[in-house]
Design a protein that fits this description.
This protein is an all-alpha fold. It is built from three helices and no strands.
Length: about 60
Amino acid sequence: MDISLMDARSIITLLSLLTFVGIIGWTFVLHRKQDFDEAAMLPFADEETNNMKQEPKHG
């Protein structure tokens, strides 16, 4: 069986499309909003603990 270059390109394009659709489905269709909201707040998690450790400002 001889696979031509056009067949290989078609297969790669189809796999890329299926991967893209799978990522979109995993992100939006599976209703993982709570997990993503929690992950979005991770950069700010240290600020709360750092604010408690700082000395009060003297004015």
